[in-house]
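Subject line: Sequence and fold of a protein, written as structure tokens
Enclosed: The protein record, placed directly beneath this head.
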Amino acid sequence: MRILVTGGGGFLGTFLIKELLKNSQYIVTNFSRHSYSHLEDLGVPTIKGDLRQKSDVEKALSFGFDAIFHVAALAGVWGKYQEYYDINFLGTKNLLEAARVTGIKRFIYTSTPSVVFGKDDLLGVGEECPYPQKHLTAYAETKTMAEKLVLEANDSHEFMTCALRPHLIWGPGDPHLFPRVIQKGKEGKLRVVGDGENLVDIIYVENAAMAHVQAFEALKPGSTVCGQAYFIGQERPVKLWDFINQVLGFMKIGPVMKSIDIQTAYRLGWLLEKAFMLGGIQKPEPPMTRFVALNLGKSHYFSQERAKKDFGYYPRVSIEEGLKRTFAHRDIL
């Protein structure tokens, strides 16, 4: 079976490709704007192209594939809306349209729990949780638009789609989450937002990759997986600030001691967003935004019962084991 992975050179994409390669029947190709030596070492070729260019997508899919894992996305809490729209929504639209034309049967989309995050705590909610009326980031808004497009495109027999929503992915080689926390911890710039008791879901990268493959293998004609979205996380939610302090402890950095209440952090985020917009500042991002304030101070964890029931998901690697594996390779953090 020939499988195309978009964004296969990235963090999750790389682990997903490694998971797929465990099955000798899967022939995997990467699609991205750049080539990656670590994928070449795995024997995985790259088709270079830009998701935003329909001609690039059509050319890539003309090589003939049976399934697509669409992992590539522009993530972040700040930046030009048009860039998020073009990559996250238009890129997905281009892929879906080309996939239908070329006869690809299965389409697995990497979404995010941010699609349902508004202003309130999310306490063990399931996939029935509605999208909020307003998103606080272009990332969440455009990922929501793309997820809707993917799920609406599902035809349970001719073109089968599903979406996975992994939350706060981390592990060896993490280029985003842990390095950012560690750097801000070293600089003394972290503040506990709220009372420090908020619970959040996290997921070790190998578990996220495994869940994608499990969903793909269950995505068959008439399957309950067809046209569905799934939250995936660890065996339990964690207290966010306890987990952050645990991560800092592995790097011999002291725990976060200073705090700020959510309302103050939210107002500060609003003011900084306005100032950055008026100043036309795209980089660096504001040190605080409304979305970040709420993410750091509110609870957001989710039920995984649908994933367990529909394709047997359960985290293969525990939080504790994942941390050991991650910090055994701290040179690549």
Residues 81-102 form the longest helix (22 residues). The first strand starts at residue 2 and ends at 6. The mean pLDDT is 95. The chain is about 40% helix and 15% strand.
